[in-house]
Amino acid sequence: MDQEALRNVVENVLGRLREENGAAAPAPPAPAESSSPSGDVASCECGKESPSGAAHYGVFNCVCQAADAAHAAFLQLKELGVAGRSRAIDIVKDICVSNAEAWGKFELEETKIGRLDHKIEKLKIVKLVPGVEWLRPDAMSGDNGITLEEYAPFGVVGAILPVTHSVPTLTGNVINMVAAGNAVLFNPHPGGAKSAAMAVKAYNQAIEKELGIANLICTIESPTIESFEKICQNDKVDLLAITGGPAVVAAAMRSGKRSICAGPGNPVVVVDETANLDKAATCIIAGGAFDNNLLCIGEKVVFVVDAVFDAFMEAMTKAGAVQLNASQLEKLTKVAFNIEDGAGGCSEAVLNRDLIGADASVLAGHGGLDVPRGTELIFAETEAEHPYVQKEQMMPMMPIVRVPDFKTGVALAKEAEHGYRHSAIIHSSNVDHMTYMARAMDTTIFVKNGSCVAGLGLGGEGYLSYSIATTTGEGITTPKTFTRIRRCVMAENLRII
User: Are residues 201 and 62 in the same domain?
Assistant: First the structure.
């Protein structure tokens, strides 16, 4: 690929991302040092120095050595079979859940975004991420023989982490990828790199102690543009898994490797005249306020038909959200978005990343409104063209758009979703409306009469995953996502009946 083009794209992405910064399970260790406790240091072909051996427990400064270590771990995991994978996953789940409170606090202190109670909850629920039980083989038997299709690992998966959910995404990916038989090499967001290193070190310490595998999970301690490029190019990395915005996804897809990409989203909600308004308000607050709206599936904008608009706004207030008036919304918008010159001389609203994941009370303060500190969500009536509607803003401020009828609401929702095909939600008692919107939106996740998290098995049927591959079409990831299918055929008449 064109390395200069890749560098330009990645430099632009990471430059913006940096602005966002910020047995019994062992106690959470301090982030790994750049050298091992033994002081054993080795150089590699890229000219950088990095600790060698297993003493650093998967935390590297050098992509070359990290990829080599992960590949060696992959070969060791193969020897332990499915039982070894299952035990490694159990170790990871147990450690994550046991350390959820301490790790949630550490990640919030590092990233400075989101809510502590929800950071902790995201770590506790990793136990719901599926494992080896998803890898049942398919068998066919007929007059001409027997065929067995099994799900085989790729080898080493190179994975990119977001700052919004550093340890939860890392852990969820580990469960899926190791269940599939792979080792993993992470390039975390710079703003969450210490949290990632902390978790990786703890997981590897326990896995090595029990299974004898060192560096099954690797991470780059100080991620850079160069480390991202090197992971994309390294021969020992067999598959890429990306969680990030459009530019970093595009860069990965141009790398020449197969990429499983969880891209951007702007989840939309439509509330029609048949909806249970109290339930709709409660669900929207629960999802839109979760971790201060950092969830990629979290409700970002609501379109409400005019016939029930005023009643819905009252239901939102009754459910605990606080409404901003037009003047307060205008003040907040001037702080939340910077107006810059876009393509063709048109102005463009650019998100103020300092407010991503900020508390609702902080946002309200910028609008000139003093609200109780525990307020989960603020909301306001807006036009469909408002920046809060059109941007994936990741703030606990819910724009509510009045629409004349249901079909207009769906049309405007489709425009605001921008074709990401990520997530959409409807509140309605009309089955025809549910079907109409589901077909029109064509999103990976479509929730009817529930909070967004119902789409991930939380309050709805299904399973949990922290990566939703919308861009490349795999959908909600499972262990199968990170496998390749191998077919074994025995010819001739082997049936016994």
Answer: yes
